[in-house]
Amino acid sequence: MEWGVLSFYCLILFLFVLHLFKIFNKMKSKVKESTSNIELIEAVEFVKDVFGDIQEQAAMSSTLLNLNIQDSFSKMINDSISNPLRTSFSALKSIESLILEQLNSYVVGFLVSHKDIINNAFQFKNNGGLIHYTNTLKNDSLLIKEPILNFLSQYERSAYASRFPIVIQDIPSELADDLSHEIKLGKLELVF
Questions:
Q1: From CA 3, how far away is CA 80, in angstroms rounded?
Q2: Is the entire prediction scored with pTM above 0.85?
């Protein structure tokens, strides 16, 4: 199979994955242990609509190309065929960005659900794929740290831990005030 055609198929796969992430974001407020049949039907209908939109864009592009007019959709396809490596890396970067966004939401959700033991939580920005948080605990004891250690231990056993590491570090409460300078510099963001 020619690289350009393979790149085009990768682009279509990327568009599909991108829209799946949009589905997950739309439905994350409804997350439960298992997906109900109604939620699954909604997800399938959404995917069907997305592919309907892509089919409509492709039909419009085809019509315009017959008139020697190139629109953004046909340009995107042409670019993916002409430079498959750049398209593949761009798709990979976009997918990784979406995964990091999902993982950050996952960590924030965990931290917020443990406000009973955490005073403040901060997220480090621009860490090149490292998901890094620091927090101050209400009581600095091993028993208090146990839920955080269990969370990290469980994540470390997952398939994505080596590619997307998560760090949650505890700092003494008296150092939290010193972080305001880092926040002003944009290196750190207050979660709560």
A1: 9
A2: no
